[in-house]
């Protein structure tokens, strides 16, 4: 049995931030992962995904400009694209192991399970920790439908050697909208099947409608009010069943991908042994990111029931945990605007309240919706859809929410996040001089009533 000051479960953005802060302060730290070291974002999420999206964007932009300076649509070579993607992902485990070695972290490869409130087993080793950090992330949620084992998950899609001709995406959230454009641009026939009336719940409905129409026009089938109820067949020859308007219908696919939501990865941890309370979205923590039921345990990132399950939040929460491990509970989780982007084509980005949420909270806001497809920034690239919806506090003139669709939205959303975080008013944003012509230089038009 080894004893350390801190045990960290998970080597993603959350776990690493906590572990490094504790180690830098001189604590002995053990870090554990059951998968190759480096976590989801860099190996199985954000980073490889955006490499694929980058190529799909070139294809989309070429198709928009065909006959306007482009005369031949480039063809995506899936094999070459995968090989390029792997130049990013494959070095990560070894690089992470080396970095951890230099930092003096004690590394354990395997599944972590609590055997006592302060002791973890990994393979045949037992480690006792004065404090334990759970940073085990999320995993695809169990759907409870027959044949769900025939689905591949996002990790599988991001590492496909060959792209089948027909792909069904089960669910209509972030993953479906990002993967659909990649697969369609690479030559597959793509169907998204979403159970609710409008996909991408939580985003602005007017912009979602524009995005849905654009993707449908580009050839992607998007079924709504359609709950996937079963998958049958064998790999390569699948039938995906769904219930729509009270009827069971089906679609054939070479591949069906789980894009129906993620849930905390806690099943193997035996959290009951440690007396750690778990809610619907993960480990229940207080504002110090400390378990509400076991003060020796902290949780951060996707697995903690706080904040959105996004990479910048995982790092933010991991840093809070790191500080609190070292200094005692000094740093609290602060509510702040969290920008997020769906890397669809074109991308859609959001920060702050939606119109519906502002109404629910009884906020008096000005709502400025603009369809921007005829603006120069979009016309220049013959983009099929663009728009914005900005919510401004009627009293203070501060930005309450910003929702953007169109090329460049993933960058411009950060300007709105800065404005919200630092209470820069809509009038100040309008007066600012921006480099022209850029999507940011459209901000003054987005804010004009
Ligand atoms: C396809 C996809 C695309 C995404 N794109 C974006 C994006 O563009 N932008 C964005 O902000 N976010 C994106 N996300 C979300 C983002 O990846 C996560 O929010 C972030 O990686 C969470 O970090 P984490 O440290 O909490 O968990 P993770 O990085 O998931 O790390 C948790 C680690 O814990 C390990 N683990 C779990 N249980 C155990 C156990 N019992 N024992 C040992 N180890 C264990 C896991 O193997 C894993 O490596 C995406 C997610 C997916 C799936
Ligand atoms: N760009 C990004 O930041 C990014 C990208 C990918 C993933 N992520 C993270 O990963 C999480 C998971 O992504 P996701 O796309 O899997 O989930 P999601 O929660 O974004 O969307 C899941 C969708 O599937 C639908 N659904 C659920 N069960 C269904 C069924 N049986 N039939 C049809 N539809 C069904 C839901 O109603 C929902 O619309 C996201 O919430 C996000 O936190 C972020």
UniProtKB/TrEMBL annotation:
Signal peptide: none annotated. Binds 1 FAD per subunit. Its cofactor is FAD. NAD(+) binds at residues 171-178, 261. GO terms for molecular function: nucleotide binding; oxidoreductase activity. FAD binds at residues 50, 302. It comes from the Bacteria. The keyword Nucleotide-binding applies. Residues 5-318 form the FAD/NAD(P)-binding domain. Disulfide bonds join 41-46. Residues 338-443 form the Pyridine nucleotide-disulphide oxidoreductase dimerisation domain. Keywords: FAD, Flavoprotein, NAD, Nucleotide-binding. Belongs to the class-I pyridine nucleotide-disulfide oxidoreductase family. PANTHER family: GLUTATHIONE REDUCTASE (NADPH), MERCURIC REDUCTASE. This is NAD(P)/FAD-dependent oxidoreductase. It comes from Spirosoma rhododendri.
């Amino acid at each position: 049995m080894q004893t350390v000051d801190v045990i960290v479960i998970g080597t993603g953005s959350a776990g690493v931030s906590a572990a490094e802060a504790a180690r830098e302060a001189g604590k002995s730290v053990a870090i554990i992962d059951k998968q190759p070291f480096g976590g989801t974002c860099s190996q199985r999420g954000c980073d490889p995904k955006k490499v694929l999206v980058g190529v799909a964007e070139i294809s989309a932009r070429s198709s928009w400009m065909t006959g306007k300076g482009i005369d031949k649509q480039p063809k995506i070579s899936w094999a070459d694209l995968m090989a390029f993607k792997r130049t990013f992902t494959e070095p990560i485990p070894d690089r992470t192991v080396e970095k951890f070695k230099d930092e003096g972290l004690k590394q354990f490869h395997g599944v972590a399970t609590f055997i006592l409130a302060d002791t973890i087993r990994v393979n045949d080793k037992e480690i006792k920790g004065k404090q334990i950090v759970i940073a085990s992330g999320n995993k695809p949620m169990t759907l409870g439908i027959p044949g769900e084992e025939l689905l591949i998950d996002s990790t599988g899609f991001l590492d496909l050697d060959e792209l089948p001709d027909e792909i069904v995406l089960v669910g209509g959230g972030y993953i479906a909208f990002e993967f659909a454009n990649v697969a369609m641009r690479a030559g597959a026939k793509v169907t998204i099947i979403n159970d609710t009336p409008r996909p991408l719940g939580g985003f602005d409905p007017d912009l979602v409608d524009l995005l849905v129409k654009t993707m449908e026009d580009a050839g992607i089938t998007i079924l709504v009010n359609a709950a996937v109820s079963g998958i049958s067949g064998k790999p390569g020859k699948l039938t995906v069943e769904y219930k729509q308007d009270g009827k069971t219908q089906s679609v054939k696919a070479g591949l069906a991908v789980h894009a129906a939501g993620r849930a905390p990865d806690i099943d193997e941890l035996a959290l009951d042994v440690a007396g750690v309370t778990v809610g619907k979205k993960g480990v229940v923590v207080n504002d110090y990111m400390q378990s509400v039921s076991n003060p020796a345990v902290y949780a951060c990132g996707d697995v903690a029931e706080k904040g959105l399950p996004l990479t910048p939040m995982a790092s933010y929460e991991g840093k809070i945990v790191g500080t609190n491990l070292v200094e005692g509970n000094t740093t609290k989780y602060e509510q702040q605007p969290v920008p997020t982007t769906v890397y669809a084509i074109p991308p859609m980005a959001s920060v702050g309240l939606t119109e519906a949420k502002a109404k629910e909270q009884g906020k008096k806001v000005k709502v400025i919706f603009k369809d921007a497809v005829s603006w120069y920034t979009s016309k220049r690239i013959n983009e099929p859809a663009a728009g914005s919806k900005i919510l401004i506090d009627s009293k203070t003139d501060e930005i309450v929410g910003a929702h953007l669709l169109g090329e460049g939205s993933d960058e411009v959303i950060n300007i709105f996040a800065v404005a919200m975080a630092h209470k820069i008013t809509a009038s100040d944003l309008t007066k600012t001089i921006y480099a022209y012509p850029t999507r940011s230089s459209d901000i003054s038009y987005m804010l004009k009533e």
